[in-house]
Design goal:
Layout: H1 2-28, H2 31-45, H3 48-56, H4 65-72, H5 87-96, E1 110-111, E2 115-121, E3 127-133, H6 137-155, H7 159-163, H8 166-178, H9 183-196, E4 203-204, H10 210-215, E5 219-223, H11 238-255, E6 258-260, E7 268-272, E8 281-285, E9 291-293, H12 296-308, H13 314-322, E10 327-328, H14 338-359, H15 364-379, E11 389-390, H16 392-411, H17 416-428
Parallel strand pairs: 4-8
Antiparallel strand pairs: 1-2, 2-3, 3-5, 6-9, 7-8, 10-11
Length: 434
């Protein structure tokens, strides 16, 4: 009952904010100010809005350039105030490890949904990063999740949204979002992926001092990586950086099966190294609060699909996709009537053909389209009661793509699949296997 009342108050607050800001817009006709104020005020009442803004920034299939520029700042500059800083802990940590915060203890260089980031210098004058949780973030996150779940519950009664099973996707990933507050786990994630990428000379992942986090669980002390943000790189360098982002994604996903789950624009640093003839374009990857692990069988089949999809007929690819582990329960497709199997295969083939040969775009919209068509078909056939559903592996893949595809599509100038084909050939020399 308490959560329901809290959810109702949250919705009333949201309605008030939209009402007030739209009224101001009608008076001043300033669209830029409308978006700016809405983003800030919505983030102030629910910090998960920051994650939503991060996911859709650079996603020009959903938003226009003006809105995109407003949302970009949320990738590493979410709203914060002085009360979010645990000042005593920051002073204690700096004193114990002889760190000099030249810009002051009240000025973070970045601000995320969970934490604030400070730049310091050690006794050798080497720059170092202090990542610190916002004060009372756990309670804020719990409240934000409760309100979000209440909103999603209400939205599930809208047929078009229910068809996409957005509620299922969010519910399955709530615990993963909660894990972002576990800094010791984040350090272990960072070390794990850094080890997996140790031979990739174009990937830089910071090293963290684990003993600091063991002593101060709300802090991470890590290496500083010099780089620029996506809106600061030259267009001439887009393709070079796009390839490195893709390679990082492909290697961590289909080779190691452990990948970054929050790869929005704020978690990638772009490094132009003209002194390195072989790898002038490098990327620094940060913030490992969310990672996704794929089951070995699914990872192997995903590898097969991705490395052959550009040379394989869409129907053949669809068969591999359907049997790759994207549908639960395992083995259910072999048990359904042939006519039903053919119908599911046909619309899967259409979506793959549209993606590879027509639109040349690979994004979460295509995945949602598959989910919608599958649910529509199951709801109107004799299969409605047998429990076919998208697998957890598929949901994880969907969330990874949702967070990262805005960056890759921007760098690829929206022609993702053409460049992906080149990258896959460079990584795995698949053109020699044909």
């Amino acid at each position: 009952m308490y959560k329901t009342l809290k959810g109702i108050l949250f919705l009333l607050n949201v309605a008030f904010i939209f009402g007030k800001e739209l009224s101001l817009y009608l008076i001043f006709k300033d669209y830029s100010l409308l978006i700016d104020r809405l983003c800030i005020r919505l983030s102030s009442i629910n910090i998960l809005c920051v994650k939503i803004f991060q996911a859709i920034s650079l996603n020009n299939s959903l938003i226009n350039d003006e809105m995109n520029n407003k949302l970009l700042k949320f990738t590493d500059n979410a709203p914060w105030n002085f009360s979010d800083i645990n000042l005593l802990r920051l002073i204690e940590l700096a004193g114990k490890y002889n760190l000099n915060l030249r810009q002051g203890y009240e000025i973070p260089i970045n601000a995320g949904m969970i934490s604030l980031v400070f730049k310091a210098y050690d006794k050798t004058n080497k720059p170092i990063i202090i990542k610190m949780k916002r004060k009372n973030i756990q309670q804020q996150l719990d409240d934000a999740i409760d309100n979000l779940l209440f909103l999603i519950y209400l939205l599930s009664f809208i047929p078009i949204l229910n068809n996409y099973q957005i509620a299922d996707v969010i519910n399955k990933n709530i615990e993963i979002i909660r894990h972002q507050t576990n800094f010791l786990e984040e350090v272990e994630n960072m070390d794990r992926i850094k080890y997996n990428c140790k031979n990739l000379k174009y990937i830089k992942i910071p090293s963290a001092i684990k003993v600091v986090t063991e002593e101060y669980p709300d802090c991470i002390l890590m290496e500083y990586i010099e780089g620029v943000k996506i809106n600061q790189i030259k267009e001439a360098d887009y393709e070079g950086f796009a390839k490195q982002v893709m390679k990082f994604g492909f290697v961590t996903t289909i080779v190691h099966g452990v990948t970054h789950g929050d790869l929005h624009g704020g978690n990638i640093l772009f490094i132009k190294d003209n002194s390195d003839e072989k790898y002038p374009h490098k990327i620094g990857v940060i913030d490992f609060g969310i990672i996704y692990e794929l089951e070995p069988t699914y990872k192997g089949l995903l590898f097969e699909v991705l490395t052959q999809m550009f040379e394989t007929p869409s129907r053949e690819t669809a068969i591999k996709v359907l049997h790759s582990g994207i549908i639960d329960p395992p083995g259910i497709l072999e048990q359904i009537p042939k006519e039903d199997y053919e119908n599911i295969l046909n619309f899967t083939t259409e979506i793959i053909d549209e993606t590879v040969n027509s639109s040349k775009k690979a994004n979460q919209i295509q995945m949602y389209k598959f989910i919608s068509k599958l649910k529509d078909y199951l709801g109107n056939s004799s299969l409605s009661t047998i429990g076919i559903r998208p697998s957890d592996n598929f949901v994880k893949t969907q969330l990874v793509l949702a967070m990262s595809h805005g960056v890759t599509l921007t760098l690829c100038n929206n022609d993702y699949l053409t460049l992906a084909d080149k990258v896959i050939n460079e990584l795995f020399h698949t053109n020699m296997l044909m």
